[in-house]
């Protein structure tokens, strides 16, 4: 019931909603254009401008999320402060708790403070992502400056890293318009006057990703869980060496690329829940014809899961983790040189390790990657080196940074996860 005379606030919310419903104006003329149903909630008014923490705004958002059942939600606002390294912001910890069961995909705008780096690179911390974009259980979206093949982080897009865990933030970029005078802008449709609006900002990149997730959910008839939707978006990214600015890269905007594979490519999705520490073994399909083909295989794997959080212990913020072990050949075992005994499990290949996931950051713990809730890895190997390959997925737990007791282990909360694997052969093998 708050009165609001500030037209900029209305315009912001109007265009965020338009981006989800219609996408960009360029999409309107496509044959497969889809209108997405949206519930729009007004949560910000003039009176909130005096509260730097926007606590009342957060309360309004939580009231909606706790009383309604949504699979996907977009948040394109938050406190205008950089994400802290230590104790998480109230927005972050509160929304992480709500999303921790894996029932909702929260897509968050990363913030528009990256432009600080242009003139004051020494003020890097002020350009970092803004809460709640540092959420563990959310998908934070920065802005790319172009939809073309050549792109980079838009100058204004806030940068990472995030906290630990949650180090690779923003999770990814999407075209959000260029702030340079001659740069490409987003062409959005005004909902009140149906006029074209030229805009840029992570506030608009995020809802375009929200739209993409909703379309993906519709095309698959709702059969994919929230972790899979999030994993597929990250899996689609065009990688970049600038993880602190771009996260895992720029998300692919073509919906067909998520659903269909070419003749030499196959994507396998493992989704479900883990309820005990023993975990599961996921077999990777490997036809006999592939084993004898003289080709290299490109493997891409993306893992995503949801976890309860402990805001009182920032270093051990995530209460659950996942350890993934890649066993490429089921008939190759190590022999203990001292005892002469053969190992019980097939040999492993380094894939889901700290270096591949987080790089060579020296200030991170050896097992830091196991508590990250979303990450992507890549590998290349000869087809002749695999035979009935498999991935072992193990549920890890901790409470206040310590291992759980046997009694606590017996009543572990359900952990929603998804693992997306793509195999691509470099020669024509008709793999699909």
Question: Would you mind describing this structure in some detail?
Answer:
- With 432 residues, the protein is of the alpha/beta class.
- The chain has 2 domains: 7-258, 3-Layer(aba) Sandwich (Rossmann fold), CATH 3.40.50.200; 261-425, Jelly Rolls (Sandwich), CATH 2.60.120.380.
- The chain is 22% helix and 20% strand.
- The protein has 12 helices and 13 strands.
- Strands 1-2-3-4 form a 4-stranded parallel β-sheet. The protein has a 4-stranded antiparallel β-sheet with strand order 7-13-9-11, with helices on one face.
- Helix 5 (116-119) links the parallel strand 2 (105-109) and strand 3 (138-144).
- The radius of gyration is 22 Å and the shape is globular.
- InterPro entries: Peptidase_S8/S53_dom, Peptidase_S8/S53_dom_sf, Y4bN_pept_dom.
- Belongs to the peptidase S8 family.
Can you lay out the helices and strands and say which pair or pack?
Elements: H1 7-22, H2 25-28, H3 55-67, E1 72-75, H4 90-99, E2 105-109, H5 116-119, E3 138-144, E4 172-175, E5 186-189, E6 196-199, H6 202-219, H7 226-235, H8 243-246, H9 256-259, E7 265-274, E8 280-283, H10 288-291, E9 296-305, E10 320-327, H11 354-358, E11 374-382, E12 390-397, H12 406-409, E13 415-425
Parallel strand pairs: 1-2, 2-3, 3-4
Antiparallel strand pairs: 5-6, 7-13, 8-12, 9-11, 9-13, 10-12
Helix pairs in contact: 1-6, 3-4
Pfam families: Peptidase_S8 (PF00082)
Family: Belongs to the peptidase S8 family.
GO molecular function, one term: serine-type endopeptidase activity
């Amino acid at each position: 019931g708050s009165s609001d005379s500030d037209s900029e606030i209305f315009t912001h919310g109007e265009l965020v909603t338009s981006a989800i419903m219609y996408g960009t104006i360029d999409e309107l003329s496509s044959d497969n254009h889809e209108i997405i149903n949206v519930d729009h909630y007004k949560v910000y008014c003039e009176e909130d401008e005096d509260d730097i923490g926007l606590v009342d705004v957060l309360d309004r958002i939580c009231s909606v999320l706790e009383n309604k059942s949504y699979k996907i939600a977009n948040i394109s606002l938050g406190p205008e402060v950089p994400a802290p390294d230590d104790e998480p912001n109230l927005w972050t910890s509160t929304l992480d708790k709500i999303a921790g069961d894996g029932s909702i995909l929260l897509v968050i705008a990363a913030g528009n403070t990256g432009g600080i780096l242009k003139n004051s690179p020494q003020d890097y911390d002020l350009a970092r992502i803004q809460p709640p974009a540092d959420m563990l259980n959310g998908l934070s979206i920065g802005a790319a400056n172009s939809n073309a093949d050549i792109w980079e982080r838009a100058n204004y897009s806030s940068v990472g890293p995030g906290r630990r865990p949650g180090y690779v933030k923003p999770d990814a970029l999407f075209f959000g318009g260029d702030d340079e005078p001659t740069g490409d802008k987003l062409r959005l449709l005004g909902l009140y006057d149906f006029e074209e609006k030229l805009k840029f900002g992570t506030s608009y990149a995020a809802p375009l990703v929200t739209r993409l997730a909703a379309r993906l959910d519709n095309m698959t008839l709702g059969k994919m869980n929230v972790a899979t939707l999030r994993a597929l978006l990250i899996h689609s990214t065009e990688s970049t060496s600038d993880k602190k600015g771009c996260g895992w890269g720029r998300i692919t905007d073509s919906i067909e690329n998520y659903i269909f594979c070419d003749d030499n490519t196959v994507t396998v999705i493992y989704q479900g829940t883990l309820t005990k520490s023993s975990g599961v073994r996921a077999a990777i399909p490997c036809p006999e014809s592939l084993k004898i083909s003289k080709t290299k295989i490109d493997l891409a794997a993306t893992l995503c899961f949801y976890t309860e959080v402990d805001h009182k212990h920032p270093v051990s913020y995530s209460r659950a983790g996942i350890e993934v072990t890649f066993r490429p050949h089921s008939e190759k075992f190590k022999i203990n040189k001292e005892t002469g005994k053969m190992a019980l499990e097939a040999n492993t290949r380094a894939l889901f390790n700290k270096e591949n996931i987080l790089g060579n950051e020296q200030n991170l713990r050896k097992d830091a990657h196991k508590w990250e809730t979303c990450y992507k890895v890549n590998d290349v190997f000869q087809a002749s080196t695999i035979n009935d390959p498999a991935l072992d997925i193990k549920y890890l737990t901790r409470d206040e940074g310590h291992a759980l007791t046997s009694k606590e282990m017996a009543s572990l909360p359900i952990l929603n996860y998804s693992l997306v694997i793509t195999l691509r052969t470099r020669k024509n093998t008709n793999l699909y």
